[in-house]
């Protein structure tokens, strides 16, 4: 399904809908975000974090590769539903293969419960992605518009 965002508010609504759709089955989820620079990958993940109730700022982990955030809000505060306990944000831009991600104990990360794992630049590490990875295509349409397909 294709979703157009013309504002941060639109992106927040799309992220909420996406989160609702992937949380229905429970458990942990891995989401791969494809798209060029400026396509809205990090912005979408930031909207997911906010919807999950993560209070601290979420930035792309380009240089540290991976950041982990704990959900800190109660499930009912501000109307959020607690889908996951943790968000792990991985930026594979600087990685050359799945082996490099494996050295960061990625297989153990996949075994965590109630965890949402979001990966930017997944094409660099596709060999280690789980079979049930959820793919999100992010596209720059114009200065104010992004297209999200999932």
Could you walk me through the main structural features you see in this protein, from its secondary elements to its overall organization?
With 150 residues, the chain is an alpha/beta fold. The chain has a single domain, classed as P-loop containing nucleotide triphosphate hydrolases (Rossmann fold, 3-Layer(aba) Sandwich), CATH 3.40.50.300. 25% of the residues lie in helices and 27% in strands. The protein contains four helices and seven strands. A seven-stranded mixed β-sheet has the order 1-7-6-2-5-4-3, covered by helices on one side. Strand 6 and strand 7 form a beta hairpin. Helix 1 (8-23) crosses helix 2. The termini are close together.
Q: What's the arrangement of secondary structure elements?
A:
Layout: E1 2-5, H1 8-23, E2 29-34, H2 41-52, E3 66-70, E4 86-91, H3 98-102, H4 106-110, E5 115-120, E6 134-142, E7 145-149
Parallel strand pairs: 2-5, 2-6, 4-5
Antiparallel strand pairs: 1-7, 3-4, 6-7
Helix pairs in contact: 1-2
Which runs of at least 5 residues are low in confidence (pLDDT < 50)? none
User: What is the CATH architecture assignment?
Assistant: 3-Layer(aba) Sandwich
The percentage helix is 25-40%
Number of strands: 7
Number of helices: 4
Structural class: alpha/beta
**How would you describe the shape?**
globular
Distance between the termini: 6 Å
Mean pLDDT metric: 90
Specify the CATH class.
Alpha Beta
Element string (H = helix, E = strand) = EHEHEEHHEEE
Number of domains: 1
How is the largest sheet built, in terms of strand order? 1-7-6-2-5-4-3
